[in-house]
Design a protein that fits this description.
183 residues; alpha+beta; single chain; 10 strands; four-stranded mixed beta sheet; six-stranded antiparallel beta sheet
């Protein structure tokens, strides 16, 4: 038994720790009209070494921002009323020394000269999600909440990089969902 615990401890020390790559600083929402709810999320983005290496070697990294409108059903938990995702790809082009941030739904591409600029554009793209929701369909008296998180799309990475990214804990956001009330 002692050998098992010693082996687990050694394994934990040898594996790199999880890197906090996206932290949600603040989130809010605004009704654009009676049928559109804009969710605004302020993100601090940073990439772990394994994803920086992937970018330098020509591998694009896809990120997904998920937003859900939920209401609480007592002790049973939350029920999702509506969900929306936004996918954005980050790529590096070595010949031009520029980063490309592509909104995968709209096929809109923005170029950035530095990684810091690219991460700002990436955070801005991931942090704006529109829910097509009729405001009149919300029932009065229900406690509605909005929930959001940002993830890397591991399935879009090449297979050897998928394992490497998962083993190194390459992309970790705040545990669980970031929630706030829809008032």
């Amino acid at each position: 038994m002692r050998a098992l615990f010693a082996g687990l401890l050694a394994l934990m020390l040898l594996l790199p720790s999880a890197t906090m790559a996206a932290e949600i600083r603040h989130a809010d929402h605004i009704w654009q009209d009676e049928h559109r709810l804009l969710v605004r999320v302020q993100l601090d983005m940073d990439l772990p070494e394994v994803l920086l290496d992937a970018l330098a070697n020509g591998v694009g990294v896809d990120f997904v921002s998920e937003v859900r409108l939920e209401y609480r059903r007592g002790i049973i938990g939350e029920r999702t009323v509506m969900a929306q995702t936004r996918a954005v790809r980050l790529e590096y082009y070595a010949l031009s020394r520029h980063y490309a941030v592509t909104d995968l739904q709209r096929q809109k591409i923005e170029l950035a000269p530095t990684l810091g600029d690219a991460l700002e554009v990436l955070a801005r793209r991931l942090g704006r999600v529109v829910l097509d929701l009729d405001r009149a369909s919300l029932r009065p008296g229900r406690d509605y909440t909005l929930a959001t998180r940002v993830l890397v799309d591991h399935a879009a990475l090449p297979l050897p990089l998928q394992w490497d990214a998962r083993l190194r804990g390459a992309y970790v956001t705040r545990l669980g969902w970031y929630r706030w009330s829809l008032d």
